[in-house]
TrEMBL record:
One of its GO terms (biological process) is glucose metabolic process. This is Glucose-6-phosphate dehydrogenase C-terminal domain-containing protein. It comes from the Eukaryota. GO terms for molecular function: glucose-6-phosphate dehydrogenase activity; NADP binding. Residues 2-277 form the Glucose-6-phosphate dehydrogenase C-terminal domain. Keywords: Carbohydrate metabolism, NADP. SUPFAM superfamilies: Glyceraldehyde-3-phosphate dehydrogenase-like, C-terminal domain (SSF55347).
Length: 280
């Protein structure tokens, strides 16, 4: 808890990346694409669970109450904090959007206006037709002040001063800590290393997938992972300016090649907040 706030965390990155695309026009005729499929539910639920205050108990309603508080604290998204893209499907793929080029990529910076997260950007990258399958959260801590190794490395320590906690779901469930480690030997050379807890190596059990877990929760009567009506309303409220622009055809979708890392302009959005996506 002492570290879980704006004083120690520089930014949080949430990635939902899929190699394959999917046909979305039949499911989302208004043209919201990945926003309606993934962002307002999966992505915002992830952010809410990560950023919420500790609930009074682990009962589902207490957890949902704290999630709603976080979602209501997130500013509405403005055009300067959003990148929408569409994949140029290659000839060998089945990835097609037949209705007015629906968004298949969503990049955004969320701002949570509360005492814990004020000033900490939550960077979202959700896309289909990208170069790898990856679902993870990266918590990047602030750079070390007064870096005593900076001089010895000739000033080239920018890539070694950020510690990270990584919560990964895909491709393999894991909890990782990225730290700076001295390379064995007589010299004073450092490199970024990962301490990893891979579930498949640690536990000799079959890890249930997300839908199995949800079905189990339905049978068990546990609602904490399901969106309550006020959660749904709060999530759509965050996206309302973007949806309005889409409805009025005021949004230009940035095209990106199928199998790439996404629109090139997304890099400008991350750079505004001093962030480089390490999974790129």
């Amino acid at each position: 808890m002492p570290l879980w706030n704006r004083s120690y965390i520089h930014n949080i990155q949430v990635t939902f990346s899929e190699e394959l695309g999917m046909q979305t026009s039949a499911r989302y005729p208004k043209g919201y694409g990945i926003l309606g499929d993934v962002v307002h539910s999966h992505i915002f639920q992830t952010v809410a669970l990560l950023a919420m205050e500790p609930p009074v108990t682990l009962d589902d309603e207490d957890i949902r109450y704290e999630k709603v508080k976080v979602l209501k604290s997130i500013r509405k998204l403005g055009s300067s904090d959003v990148i929408l893209g569409h994949s140029k499907a290659d000839s060998g793929s089945n990835f097609k959007d037949v209705e007015n080029l629906m968004p298949t990529y969503f990049g955004a910076v969320l701002h949570i206006d509360n005492a814990r997260w004020d000033g900490v950007p939550f960077l979202i990258k959700a896309g289909r037709g990208l170069k790898k399958n990856r679902v993870e959260i990266r918590i990047q801590f602030r750079r070390v002040p007064g870096n005593i190794y900076h001089k010895d490395r000739g000033g080239n320590m920018q890539d070694l001063v950020t510690n990270e906690l990584i919560l990964r779901d895909v491709p393999d469930e894991a909890i990782l800590i990225r730290i700076n480690n001295k390379i064995p030997g007589l010299g004073m050379n450092l490199e970024a290393s990962e301490l990893n807890l891979l579930y498949k190596d640690k536990y000799n059990v079959d890890v249930t997938d997300s839908y199995e877990q949800l079905l189990h929760d339905v049978i068990d009567g546990d609602n904490h992972l399901f969106m309550r009506s006020d959660e749904v309303e709060a999530a759509w409220n965050i996206l309302s300016p973007v949806l309005s622009e889409l409805d009025n055809n005021n949004v230009t979708l940035e095209h990106y090649e199928f199998g790439s890392k996404g629109p090139d302009k997304a890099g400008n959005l991350w750079a505004k907040h001093g962030v480089q996506w390490l999974d790129d």
